[in-house]
């Protein structure tokens, strides 16, 4: 019994503890975000962060209450250990919502980096929605089950959910790295900053992909345990921290000393301009001499270094995005 409890509800307890640590880190990141960008970021970006923090809080609370009900309220009641409580499944809905919102956010960044290439972004969006829908179906089917033994009948669907989630995160990261690499030029300082952005992209995308892959591996290697649940239940926390770290790192990246001009194809997240509206290429904020130094080159692709201009590398003037 001790060995069985260690590999089953012991893993759920570990998921609560580790998830609480990640939740605390996410709350700190959320506080830092609203403190730094309360007056600068558009309302929809702040609403996105608020939505994710609320879902994260609900998921942590529900999971904690579920484990408390198993091991405290029903202490010494062995019959409860085979029953699948609905609260354990309900928290998956919030994790699924977090994953979709964060992946759509990253798809939006890829769309900006690719200068509005639907050929690149649409497959990524479809893959993200496929991962969302598969997990939604899994959750709905699980709600109809009453024991953990019955839950094993959805093993193949569970594997599909994790594979789709990992594939979506990996493909989004590859797309972002590709366009960042493509934006490199002969300027060493600009290339140095782009290299940092590439490394940062991998670092924020790998943890979630790692958990999804290990959840898929562990459900095959240890199907009678809850080891796969440990990795699966942490994905929501990792998505939240990935997004918040990405937003809060803008000042750090901007301090690298590299400034990109209006026509840059890299991480400048200014509104996408139609070629028929070249006269509107003046949306990026500047620290001084903005009117004098606005680009006159049209929508051509180029990378410059302008020592008089400071641009938020990831979200330059996002308030003007349609």
UniProtKB/TrEMBL annotation:
The keyword Aminoacyl-tRNA synthetase does not apply. The keyword tRNA processing does not apply. Keywords: Membrane, Transmembrane, Transmembrane helix. The chain crosses the membrane at residues 12-34, 43-71, 83-106, 118-137, 157-180, 200-220, 226-247. Residues 272-294 have a biased composition (Basic and acidic residues). Pfam families: DUF6534. Residues 165-252 form the DUF6534 domain. This is DUF6534 domain-containing protein.
